[in-house]
Amino acid sequence: MKPTPYSLILAGAGHAHLVAMRRWIENGYNPPQGTILLSPSPKAWYSGMMPGLIAGRFTSDECAIDLAPLCKACEVELVIGEIADLNAAKRRMKLTNEQVLEYEYLSLNVGSVPPQPLHNDGSISLAPAKPFAGFNEHWQVWRKRNESMQLVVLGGGAAAFELALALQKSLPQAQLSLICSGDLLSGYSRGLRHKAIKILDERGIKRHKNTRIDSIANGWLISGTRQILQAEALVIATGAAAQPWLASSGLKCDNSGFVEVSNSLQSLSHPEVLASGDCANQTGAAHSGVYAVRQGSALSQIIPALLDSDTLREYKPQARALALLATADGGALMHYGRFSAGGRLLGMYKDYLDKGFMGRHTID
Ligand SMILES: Cc1cc2nc3c(=O)[nH]c(=O)nc-3n(C[C@H](O)[C@H](O)[C@H](O)COP(=O)(O)OP(=O)(O)OC[C@H]3O[C@@H](n4cnc5c(N)ncnc54)[C@H](O)[C@@H]3O)c2cc1C
Predict the structure, then answer these.
(1) 183-188 long-range CB contacts below 8 Å, 24 or more apart?
(2) Residues 146-176: pLDDT tens digits?
(3) pLDDT by residue (tens digit) across 298-342?
(4) CB of 278 closer than 6 A to ligand 1?
(5) Which range of residues forms the domain containing residue 145?
(6) How many angstroms is it from 148 CA to the middle of ligand 1?
(7) Which InterPro entries does the UniProt entry name for this protein (predicted)?
(8) Does 329 fall in a domain?
(9) Is 86 among the domain residues?
(10) Ligand 1 mean position to 206 CA, how many Å?
């Protein structure tokens, strides 16, 4: 297939690109002709509200951003497609539909996928938390079935905790278990962990810690040689793994396959490529929506400067970030540094922040 040339490809409608595009609209900046936003779907799901959607607190319309009006407002063409292969030396990418695109400049904001158990005989239905469109399909099937089932959430971070609570609320017939390879919420303060465990226990969600599930066979979740639990379905919320095509792209990546970038979000090997959000490895920035949003704000200035061969702005990640974990009942747990708290007011504050993000990026 003949390649289509573009001056700038914004690959992925992640948090960072949404924020950058919104800033461009506010500042009256129009990227050059031949700029596209490449997205597998015409909508971008907002992960911060996904657990609330499952818990029945939001509708799907409230949690997804329509990309066409946003693109129109900043004069960027929306192209629906998904990268299957990237060749950074040739500045060329192949999409899953075989289309070939070439670029002068590329900004990657393609997120991550949760790592899965190494061996799987297919006897348990797997539902990775990302991409959310796929997860949503599994959840709809479970809801319709409305039957007793063993549902296991794999993961020990905030997303696993929130999803377990939300699924327990949405599927009252299901027996929920949460399995993590280390301690639950290990990066958080002791106070927050204590509160989180209390909530899980009160809601009857079984916990297994220090249990790494490495294989699935005959309907069992297996750790080493130990059969841990039988399950009908497994939600994978195990954190962030890089998109597999990044490691073979020729871009300098870390050992986990994330694109290594400078504080200007510029690839360490290919200066015409930027990367932000979960797909990037910037020293000091965690893989979370909070850092992706901050990077997006910097990106709104970095991209125009890069195109004009100007000095690039630097973004230095903040040492701490506020974390708010939804508890599926309108409340939230809060963590900042060593400080933690919980309750309805924090839930209202989280809703205010999340709805604010959606409001800012929804263009009529
Ligand atoms: C259930 C859940 C709840 C979470 N809640 C929070 C929270 O409250 N706060 C927080 O800070 N973090 C939260 N996170 C983590 C957060 O989702 C990620 O860190 C954040 O989404 C990263 O944003 P991003 O900008 O990297 O891209 P994302 O927002 O992940 O978006 C990536 C985009 O790239 C697109 N894409 C993917 N593959 C391709 C491809 N091959 N080609 C083209 N496009 C592609 C996707 O369709 C998507 O639009 C949560 C995660 C989950 C799973």
Answers:
(1) 183/156, 183/209, 183/210, 184/156, 184/209, 185/156, 185/157, 185/158, 185/161, 186/156, 187/157, 188/158, 188/323, 188/335, 188/340
(2) 788 999 999 999 999 999 999 999 999 999 9
(3) 999 999 999 999 999 999 999 888 999 999 999 999 999 889 999
(4) yes
(5) 119-239
(6) 31
(7) FAD/NAD-bd_sf, FAD/NAD-binding_dom, NADH-Q_oxidoreductase
(8) no
(9) yes
(10) 27
